[in-house]
Each structure stands twice: as structure tokens, then as C-alpha cells.
Amino acid sequence: MATEFRFYRDLAPILPVRTVRLHGSVVADGRTWLFLEDVGRRQYSCSDVDRSSLAQWLAVVHRATAAADLSWLPPAGPDRYRQHLHAGRTSIVDNLSNPMLDAEHRRQLVRVVDLLDRTDDRWSDVERRLAGAPD
């Protein structure tokens, strides 16, 4: 949560594009709650128009922050994504016995676990392809 807080506190205000405004934060019971501006009911869709707008927005963000000190950001290399893969797999496996899942949903999730296992087994390929890429 510290990363998101710092983004909204330190980076968002200097960006030359509209971003969600941070109204404050509260730490309670070991959790940090961020209070962000309400952006209304419009939701992101996967349409080409929205993807194009998102790509343009990200390009502006990257240009605007190129000279900023971003050393506080966590590493974003392959290890981070492998940890996400493992966490997602664990969560799925831990919930396969959920009585709300019917047999078809359970079969689909087992297939996802299989794909995650195969991806993990070939993780050296992922690392090799990303060798030299910035974190």
C-alpha cells in the first residue's frame, strides 16, 4: 500500500494528465486505507479506443516521470511476477474445495493451475527473454 500512497501523494500531482486525487489515508488494524476521488460510473473496457487512450496516458506518465527519483518503487523484474504467479496458484488451489464452485468451474480452475505450473516450469525462458530489460 505504501507504493500506491506514494504514487498518489508524490507523482500524481506532478503529472500533466488527469489522475485520481488523494484525499488522505488512515492506518487501522495494520491496514492502510486510501481515500481517493470518486471518478464516477464510467468503467474501463477492453475496447480499442480505451486501450489506445490508456497507452497514450501511460506514455505521458512515463515521459513525465523519467527524471523523477523512483528508487522507492519495488523491483518489477521477473522475480516479482513469479511471486504473483505462485500467490495466484496458491489462492486457486486453496479455494478449489469452495462449495460455491460447480464441477465445470472447478475443472476450469484446475486447467488454470496446470497452465501456471507449466509457466513456472519454463520460468528460465521468461528470464532469458527479459534479460537486459529494465526492472
Q: If you had to describe this structure to a student in words, what would you say it looks like?
A:
The chain is mainly alpha-helical. It contains 5 helices and 2 strands, in the order αββαααα. It has helices at 2-11, 48-64, 78-94, 103-121, 123-130; strands at 22-28, 31-36. The chain has a two-stranded antiparallel sheet with strand order 1-2. Helix 3 (78-94) runs antiparallel to helix 4 (103-121). It is extended and about 50 Å long. The two termini are 19 Å apart.
Assign the structural class, choosing from mainly alpha, mainly beta, alpha/beta, alpha+beta, or little secondary structure.
Answer: mainly alpha
Main sheet properties: 2 strands, antiparallel
Strand content: 5-15%
End-to-end Cα distance, whole Å, is 19 Å
User: Strand arrangement, largest sheet?
Assistant: 1-2
- What average pLDDT do the residues reach? 89
How many DSSP helices?
5
Please tag this protein with its features:
two-stranded antiparallel ribbon; 5 helices; extended; mainly alpha; 135 residues
